[in-house]
């Protein structure tokens, strides 16, 4: 059973929220809104009174970036839209040249291989920036999801953590596709976006927020993945697992050796994703 928390300044008031700096439980009366969650009056006072206060940090321990807090998300959306517009101009060439698949013809066809099985490993990441040029809803829905889920998450965990999370989730999605459906041409940012869904759930759990909204949204998207035609549930599943694991390492890392644990976890998930991709290719080529 989960332990009931009481505000450290008002012991008679139960709460589920912690200060993002000192992690002490605080009630609504003590919650001071900050750029990354809520802080307690003591931490706010300490920050304001010190002329040499350290630079503000996110809940993941990263420095709060100057300027636009949603910069990486905007760049990712811009890249996806630019590639889609290029697809409109050149036709299906980008899909065949950069989309994700792996196959080998069996004898007597001389084992001719294509895609990742032909050494074109760049497809595991380039495919995450491609969308169906004949279906504007494909890129439209993905980019709206990226903005609604990604932008707040970028602000709360920081640019570098967010960028690494997105990349590894995309590669996790690609690994799952190659393991489970290697001969199907797969494109789209949804694998990485599902990783952001998982990371958001971890973030909300970490700060003891009400998780029902994000869990309902996640369940609906999972149902959508398995019931709609031409949707790669393999990419969604792989991205969700990879993004969730990376987020757990980032948000639950202990204060001591936090950086080592965070980036060690990220590197481990990355290595596993690439290793699974290698196993998938070996199966196709054997």
Structure description:
- Strands 1-2 form a two-stranded antiparallel ribbon.
- It is elongated.
- 39% of the residues are buried.
- It has helices spanning 41-49, 71-90, 93-98, 123-126, 136-157, 159-180, 190-206, 212-227, 233-251, 258-285, and strands spanning 5-6, 14-15, 17-18, 25-26, 32-34, 37-39, 102-104, 113-115.
- The protein contains 10 helices and 8 strands.
- It has 2 domains: 5-49, no CATH class; 71-285, Rhomboid-like fold.
- α6 (159-180) packs antiparallel against α9 and α7 runs parallel beside α9.
- The longest helix is centred in the C-terminal third of the chain and has 28 residues, at 258-285.
- It is 57% helix and 7% strand.
- β3 (17-18) and β4 form a beta hairpin.
- The chain has 286 residues and is mainly alpha-helical.
- This is Membrane associated serine protease, rhomboid family.
- Keywords: Hydrolase, Membrane, Protease, Transmembrane, Transmembrane helix.
- It is found in: Membrane.
Explain briefly what this protein structure is.
The protein is mainly alpha-helical and 286 residues long.
Q: What does the secondary structure layout of this molecule look like, with pairings?
A:
Elements: E1 5-6, E2 14-15, E3 17-18, E4 25-26, E5 32-34, E6 37-39, H1 41-49, H2 71-90, H3 93-98, E7 102-104, E8 113-115, H4 123-126, H5 136-157, H6 159-180, H7 190-206, H8 212-227, H9 233-251, H10 258-285
Antiparallel strand pairs: 1-2, 3-4, 5-6, 7-8
Helix pairs in contact: 2-5, 5-6, 5-7, 6-7, 6-9, 6-10, 7-9, 9-10
